[in-house]
Amino acid sequence: MEEFYRSFAQRARDLAENADPFTKRRLLDLAQRYDLKSRPGAPGGRTLPPPRAMPPTTLFSGSGEA
């Protein structure tokens, strides 16, 4: 998976060479994000929130009928 993101980062940099200033800035930002994702153990990808200790109480309030 790291190689996938690394190659996409390089592709974005290659495209940025011939792009207008606005697009170039966006492509270089995208390449930077892909570089972060390509590093193993890096916090570049989405992470799951910590599990809840208890379920929300609203699930259990009421008479119990659906």
Main attributes of the structure:
mainly alpha; 2 helices; elongated
How would you describe this structure to a colleague?
It is a single chain. By secondary structure, the chain is mainly alpha-helical. The protein has a domain at 2-44. Helices cover 50% and strands 0% of the residues. The protein contains 2 helices and no strands. Helix 1 (2-16) runs antiparallel to helix 2. The longest helix is centred in the middle third of the chain and has 18 residues, at 21-38.
Describe the largest sheet. none
Q: What is the end-to-end distance? A: 44 Å
Shape, per Cα inertia axes: elongated
Number of strands: 0
Task: Write the topology of this structure.
Layout: H1 2-16, H2 21-38
Helix pairs in contact: 1-2
Q: Would you summarize the structure shown here?
A:
Residues 35-66 are annotated as: Disordered. This protein is an all-alpha fold and 66 residues long. The chain has 2 helices and no strands.
